[in-house]
């Protein structure tokens, strides 16, 4: 088919590159920091896991469904622009969710506000003292409820109203808010039940309340310091904050989920009309480049503006403001995004055909289980990685740099993609990716400082990049003609997204019941077990290869004579001739 004179391929590719770059910056504004923002709202790990699991589930199934409808009714550009415009408003709805408690300003802002507040006098009728753990212990040094070392305790008073008052200078940090240095915090009041004494002063109560994760969790700073979470936060407030967060997140994801797949399908079909699909493969690099630049830029900008723009809300709201601004820029670019204007007749229900193909191919079944487990483990770990870094003193700039380092490592390894797949084979590359991912998770469980996470991020080049290269190459090799793209979209969307949803929910409850270190090590053990099973199963599976019909015709034509009798023996040629004669 000849090229339509209205289609300028160079211009279309330039607009597509700019669109992917801007969308990468847009995703970097909020996506990596979303769980951190939910923590600032005061939600504990189980609720954050449920929210993130819901988000992944919507993205896995709602996005492909909307892409199918947009293609069927030729409304792709309308959906692109509507998704970008709606996400601007939906992100602002997320900002309106009130936190469970008043969030104090950052310590760097408080330093210029004047002298620290003085300690309040004890309430009338104060009687008795209790011992609370000092804040000098690191967050992960001992489990919740464990007494601190001798000589590292201070006394507080218990008033007649039943509230414990910590002495001035004691740090009262929680999982839902930033930490404050000694000397700048006013004493906090915590309820004390009748008969409470020194022996149970360090225990946590109601761990599902905001700021009260489970005992033993590294994210539970207040528990590690021996402070009971504030019981003044009612279950009613927790329920409303969770429900408002859930509603806002669902509304936001319903609007943003279709964007990426609709844009990819439109661009691929646009280039396919003019036989330029080979240039489509080079466009993937622009999104991670935008992510790397955006995640560092937005954190640096938030650090400069937080003292000027923030009042009493979580500092994460600035990320949503940046997201809205970049979404507006992406909306302007989407006006010129290449969308095919001609409709090509293609077989329908490709997703159903791809699903039936997976059910009948043992190698695809094993590959699907691998992708599902990788999605579950990666989501469970990444959801709470920034919590772990924050507990070790990291700022958002350090977190952003860790994300950028992982994306840049994948980009730098890409020139060696063909060599890696040729030397190790696809099965070997999948095994290498699983091994590197397990080693990465095990390393996370032994972090001693926030910057110690940076060396492990380099492994993302193999554990994420090379692993998915091998998966996509295997899918293309095992797919039948016409099902390669739907099958690849199923692996990257439905299967990986379903695993991410399950991993998020399970990971939140593991963090509540045990700790982040236990979660990381459990994910490592699961991946190593599957790696051993994967390598044992692969040699015993039947060999399946895709039939290349074009090569088959060339070989048949070279081996047979030009006589009509020799040609008629080829059933494919017969079928093609019959179709042309109709």
Structure description:
The protein is mainly alpha-helical. It has four domains: 1-100 and 233-343, MFS general substrate transporter like domains (Growth Hormone, Chain: A); 105-219, no CATH class; 351-546, MFS general substrate transporter like domains (Growth Hormone, Chain: A); 549-581, no CATH class. 60% of the residues lie in helices and 3% in strands. It has 22 helices and four strands. Strands 1-2-3-4 form a four-stranded antiparallel sheet, with no helix packed on it. A hairpin with a 4-residue loop joins strand 2 and strand 3. The protein is globular and about 75 Å long. Mean pLDDT is 75; it is low at 1-5, 112-233 and 563-568.
Report the radius of gyration as a whole number of Å: 28 Å
Span between N and C termini? 21 Å
**Could you please say which CATH topology of the largest domain applies here?**
Growth Hormone, Chain: A
Secondary structural class: mainly alpha
DSSP summary: helix tally = 22
What level of helicity do the residues show?
55-70%
CATH fourth-tier homologous superfamily of the largest domain: MFS general substrate transporter like domains
Q: How many runs of DSSP E, i.e. beta strands?
A: 4
């Amino acid at each position: 088919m000849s090229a339509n004179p209205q289609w300028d391929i160079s211009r279309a590719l330039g607009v597509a590159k700019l669109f992917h770059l801007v969308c990468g910056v847009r995703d970097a504004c909020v996506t990596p920091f979303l769980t951190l923002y939910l923590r600032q709202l005061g939600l504990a790990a189980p609720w954050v896991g449920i929210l993130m699991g819901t988000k992944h589930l919507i993205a896995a199934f709602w996005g492909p469904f909307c892409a199918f409808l947009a293609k069927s009714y030729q409304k792709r550009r309308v959906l692109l622009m509507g998704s970008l415009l709606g996400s601007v408003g939906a992100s602002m709805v997320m900002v309106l969710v009130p936190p469970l408690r008043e969030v104090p300003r950052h310590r760097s802002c408080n330093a210029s506000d004047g002298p620290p507040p003085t300690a309040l006098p004890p309430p009338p009728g104060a009687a008795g003292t209790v011992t609370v753990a000092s804040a000098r212990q690191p967050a992960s040094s001992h489990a919740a409820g464990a007494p601190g070392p001798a000589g590292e305790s201070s006394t507080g008073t218990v008033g007649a109203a039943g509230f414990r008052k910590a002495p001035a200078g004691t740090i009262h940090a929680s999982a839902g808010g930033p930490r404050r240095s000694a000397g700048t915090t006013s004493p906090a009041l915590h309820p004390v039940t009748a008969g409470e004494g020194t022996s149970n002063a360090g225990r946590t109560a109601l761990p599902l309340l905001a700021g009260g994760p489970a005992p033993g969790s590294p994210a539970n700073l207040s528990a590690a310091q021996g402070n009971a979470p504030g019981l003044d936060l009612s279950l009613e407030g927790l329920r409303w904050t969770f429900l408002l967060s859930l509603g806002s997140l669902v509304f936001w994801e319903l609007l943003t989920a279709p964007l990426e797949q609709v844009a990819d399908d439109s661009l691929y079909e646009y280039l396919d009309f003019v036989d330029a699909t080979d240039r489509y493969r080079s466009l993937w690099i622009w999104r991670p480049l935008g992510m790397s630049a955006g995640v560092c830029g937005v954190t640096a900008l938030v650090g400069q503006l937080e003292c000027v723009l923030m009042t009493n809300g979580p500092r994460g709201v600035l990320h949503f403001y940046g997201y809205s601004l970049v979404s507006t820029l992406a909306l302007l670019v989407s006006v010129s995004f290449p969308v095919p204007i001609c409709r090509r007749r293609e077989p329908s229900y490709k997703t159903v055909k791809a699903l039936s193909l997976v059910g009948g191919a043992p190698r695809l079944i094993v590959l699907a289980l691998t992708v599902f487990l990788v999605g579950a483990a990666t989501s469970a770990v990444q959801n709470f990685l920034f919590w772990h870094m924050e507990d070790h003193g990291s700022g958002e700039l350090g977190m952003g740099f860790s994300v950028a380092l992982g994306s840049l490592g994948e980009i730098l390894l890409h020139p060696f993609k063909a060599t890696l797949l040729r030397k190790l084979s696809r099965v070997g590359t999948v095994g290498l990716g699983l091994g590197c991912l397990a080693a990465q998770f095990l390393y996370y469980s032994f972090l001693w400082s926030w910057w110690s996470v940076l060396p492990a991020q380099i492994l993302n080049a193999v554990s994420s990049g090379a692993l998915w290269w091998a998966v996509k190459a295997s899918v293309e090799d095992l797919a039948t003609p016409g099902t390669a793209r739907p099958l690849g979209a199923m692996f990257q969307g439905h299967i990986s997204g379903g695993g991410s949803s399950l991993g998020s929910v399970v990971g939140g409850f593991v963090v509540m019941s045990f700790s982040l270190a236990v979660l990381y090590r459990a994910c490592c053990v699961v991946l190593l077990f599957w790696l051993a099973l994967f390598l044992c199963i692969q040699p015993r599976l039947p060999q399946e290869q895709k039939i290349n019909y074009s090569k088959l015709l060339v070989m048949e034509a070279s081996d047979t004579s030009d006589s009509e009798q020799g040609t008629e023996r080829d059933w494919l040629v017969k079928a093609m001739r019959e179709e042309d004669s109709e």
